[in-house]
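Q: Please design a sequence for this.
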């Protein structure tokens, strides 16, 4: 009885964890450049004294869906989308270099170029600072040019160039903050072959319909595990009554 109860209990717990991961994907279905997490179940033997005759269920995140989202035109000068493979380099909250596809750029109150999530965009020599200007243009190679205040329309000054990288997908890992990093915590070199499309944004790659179907499936799995625990309790009570006789 205890083996059945343990399996059902662990299955219900891990189903809740998988549901949390799926809910996280669904909540970010409209987040710019978001990459969905995969989730999977597997049976794990319990090792100890003797043979591993007991198992428990375990939910895990085997990886991240790195498929591209849909690129849609916005017409905004500071909106960019990576064309094909590649990433924008940003400064993560922990101060290290990380990578994202969210190109909804803006200039913060202190003059730093950031994206919608508040991550500072990195250039050739660190965070990009944009001086006060009348217009900001971003080239296909990530070069940022500005028209200084009071200057003629054809006067452009190059400020910096956004660091664009293209590391191998197998070397990337997703952090709890939603940003991608290299597994060895190193910084990827800039790749001159990566191009961006201005006036456009890349949507999340989460399929809302699949996420909703997965949510219903996980809910039914949880109900099944709870029902198994109830059956175990009923069998235990029946066994106690038989022993009393």
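A: Design:
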């Amino acid at each position: 009885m205890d083996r059945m109860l343990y399996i059902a209990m662990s299955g219900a717990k891990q189903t809740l964890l998988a549901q949390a991961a799926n809910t996280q994907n669904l909540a970010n279905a409209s987040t710019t450049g978001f990459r969905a997490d995969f989730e999977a179940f597997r049976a794990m033997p319990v090792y100890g004294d003797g043979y591993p005759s007991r198992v428990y269920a375990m939910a895990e995140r085997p990886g991240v869906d790195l498929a591209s989202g849909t690129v849609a035109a916005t017409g905004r000068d500071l909106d960019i989308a990576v064309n094909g493979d590649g990433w924008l380099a940003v400064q993560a909250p922990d101060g290290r270099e990380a990578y994202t596809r969210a190109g909804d750029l803006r200039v913060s109150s202190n003059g730093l170029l950031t994206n919608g999530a508040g991550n500072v965009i990195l250039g050739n020599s660190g965070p990009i600072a944009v001086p006060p200007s009348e217009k900001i243009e971003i080239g296909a190679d990530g070069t940022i040019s500005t028209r200084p205040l009071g200057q003629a329309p054809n006067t452009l000054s190059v400020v910096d160039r956004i660091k664009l990288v293209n590391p191998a997908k197998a070397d990337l890992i997703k952090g709890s903050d939603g940003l991608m990093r290299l597994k060895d915590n190193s910084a990827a070199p800039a790749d001159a072959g990566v191009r961006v499309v201005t006036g456009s944004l890349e949507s999340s790659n989460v399929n809302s319909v699949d996420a909703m179907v997965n949510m219903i499936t996980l809910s039914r799995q949880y109900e099944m595990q709870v029902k198994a625990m109830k059956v175990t309790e009923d069998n235990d009570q029946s066994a106690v009554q038989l022993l009393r006789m």
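Q: Thanks. Anything notable?
A: The mean pLDDT is 88. The radius of gyration is 25 Å.
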